[in-house]
Amino acid sequence: MSDHQNRRLNPALLGQLPATVAVPRYDRSKVGQAIVHIGLGNFHRAHQALYIDELFHAQGAGPWGICGVGLLPQDRAMAEALRPQEMLYTLVERDEGVETVRVIGSERGYLHAPSEPEAVIARLADPETRIVSITVTEGGYYLDHGTGELDQNHPNLRHDLAKPNEAPISLYGYMAEALNRRRKAGIAPFTVLSCDNLQSNGELAGRMLTGFARLRDPELGAWIAANVAFPNCMVDRITPVTTDALREQVKALLGGVTDAWPVVAEPFKQWVVEDKFCNGRPDLAAVGVQMTPDVHPYELMKIHLLNAGHQMLCHHGVLLGYVTADEAMRDADIRALLNRYMDTVRPLIHEPPGVNLVEYQQTLLSRFANPSVKDQLSRIAFYASSGIPKFVLPIAREQLKQRKPMDIFGLLIAGWIRYLGGKDDAGKAITPTDPLKDELQGKVRFGDTDPSVFLGLHQIFGSDLPQAEPFVSAVREALESLYAKGTRATLQNSLKG
């Protein structure tokens, strides 16, 4: 046992793991790769891959295993972590005082697109592939927010359109080439299942891919529009980044076996899927996935309460000196702030079938406060520029339309601006994590209480909100208070109102 400390998770070691660790009880050699997942990160591995793993436990091994694809050069790290483990990895679910540990076996392969582009296209074109699911974050969709259409001038798309027979760069370059090969060979297309946290994600993926394909070849675009299914779906699970501390904890949990890239998540998970597939699908309902003809009400509930609530939490939490969501949620003023935001928004949302929104709100607050997950506020803040226009501003517009008070929305936006000022209330430096941080911070001066330059960011606020006096006034008043009185007093004054 001299190499005990160097043992790496692999199929041969599954029988030697502690009895507290659940392992695949199905025959992995009989698991196919009918699903290709592009953007294999922590969320996918704690969510979709878990549902498929549960399906194999319930019904036995089958075709619906997953081949992961990484589109980015840095995705090589995931390949180097998981391939030596034959795609096995550990999922730790943590709630206060409760921890469960399991090894997931539903991933069967991993392809790194920049270093093996033809292998990726061949896998997508293979008749075995029946669903291509994606989590590439918003940037991977190449959406022009001004027009709502494809940003066809993006250099990656220009490359893929100019040189369709060379190694693609974009999601659409790969999918269009694979679908073109299937069309020419008389092979049925795959379903494209977006699992990104975007409203109407299937419709968006369909519009973007079809638009790209039409630019490449009008006949291909027409074939995709007529034959490929793009179901909408809503996904939900808080999944923090993997840290070295987690790796050490997992090594202890596995009895000294090393897992290069384990995942930790909260116990809660939800997946609502529009039942619209063109080439078969797994029996997802058997493992708790909600199959429905209309995902939209569930999407709106989640993005306007959970995702928007996260944006309120992260910026004000950082200003008060907190690092993780659970720390911030132990602050009575932050918790009351979130309750007030959700109380304001809830009447503006149609209650989805089978959901009680008051109970959902309380569940969210408990999830945010889970001390075992340690979700970093910096991770949540990363999504502000892409998320606030989708999670917060549509419901703010609805509030404006109904001539109701705008102060809670003003406070959310002012908190973001104040955060971008670069110092918390104690004077400690804040380093924004948003991909657009340079552009955003270029519109902010520390101490400046006039938000008009920042609100002029058209790709975020459009042309209507900067002209909406109640909205602008609410942001200005909150910003003035944040600078003059500090975050604590501002929140307490807001809660009095």
CATH architecture of the largest domain: 3-Layer(aba) Sandwich
Q: Please provide the count of β strands.
A: 14
Main sheet specs: 5 strands, parallel
Radius of gyration: 23 Å
* Order of the strands making up the biggest sheet: 6-3-2-7-10
Please mark out the parts with pLDDT under 50 across 5 or more consecutive residues, or reply none: 1-5
Shape: globular
How many separate domains?
A: 2
User: Which strand-content bin applies to the residues?
Assistant: 5-15%
State the distance separating the first and last CA atoms. 66 Å
SS-derived structural category? alpha/beta
Q: Which CATH top level class of the largest domain fits?
A: Alpha Beta
Q: pLDDT average, as an integer?
A: 95
Provide a count of the helices: 22
CATH superfamily of the largest domain: NAD(P)-binding Rossmann-like Domain
Helix content: 40-55%
Task: Tell me what you see in this structure.
This protein is an alpha/beta fold. It folds into 2 domains: 4-292, NAD(P)-binding Rossmann-like Domain (Rossmann fold, 3-Layer(aba) Sandwich), CATH 3.40.50.720; 296-496, N-(1-d-carboxylethyl)-l-norvaline Dehydrogenase, domain 2 (Orthogonal Bundle), CATH 1.10.1040. Helices cover 45% and strands 12% of the residues. It contains 22 helices and 14 strands. The chain has helices at 42-46, 48-59, 76-82, 117-125, 155-162, 171-185, 201-216, 218-227, 244-253, 296-319, 325-329, 332-345, 357-368, 377-381, 384-391, 393-401, 407-420, 437-441, 452-455, 458-461, 469-484, 487-496, and strands at 21-22, 35-38, 66-70, 89-95, 98-104, 107-112, 131-134, 143-144, 149-150, 191-194, 233-236, 263-265, 270-274, 290-292. The strands form 4 sheets. Strands 6-3-2-7-10 form a 5-stranded parallel beta sheet, sandwiched between helices. Strands 1-5-4-12 form a 4-stranded mixed beta sheet, sandwiched between helices. It has a 3-stranded mixed beta sheet with strand order 11-13-14, with helices on one face. It is globular and about 65 Å long. Mean pLDDT is 95; it is low at 1-5.
